[in-house]
What does this fold into?
Amino acid sequence: QHFAEDPDPQVPWPDEARVPGFRRAVCEYHAEVERLGKVLLQIFARVLKCDEAKLLQLADKHVSAMNLFSFTMGQGGEVLPAHADVSVFTVISHDTSPGAAGSASLQMLTPDGLWEEVHGAPGCFLVNLGQIMQRWSNGRLRATVHRVVPPDGEEGAKRQSITFFQLLNYDASVSVLPECCGGSLGEAKYEPQTVADWTANRLSGFYQPPEKRDINKCWFNYNAD
It folds into this structure.
């Protein structure tokens, strides 16, 4: 309920006079995709055979993040290395208007170990499963490993996307759900942890001073599961 409100320093809003309506549009989009997140949590509760209210309660004070991402095709090198998101799931929308690059340069790793391009359709979302879903399900539902490679498309076209990372409450558990382990389902593969401890472990390296940061080690730790 406090998305983008003062005193949050993480949202550097542009001047309203320069981009009229931008802040309102972004906040309205956030409210809608947040509602979509609740629907998806209910759907996955059924997939995992657990109570819908249980998963919703784990996210009733969630610390989800939303990023607006833009780059020009034909510029720059590697954008994002291979990784699976530190989220329950991630909801992505791409600009598919005439002249835009859509989801160009986004690739997904298949179960066969091959990288395939992801094609976003107009009016549709892309939904990646995150590492929390993999932990909840004891590995039954695998996190989507993906990457953003150097653009290979029409020179000058814009690739713009909005990415919503569905997270949980800081004190919520990212442990294997009881409904997904034991008996014929096997023992839990992941140690019990809270969101706070787990995300701190995954992300702490990225916040080290540049001169001390080992970016390869950071990504290795990020993808530890």
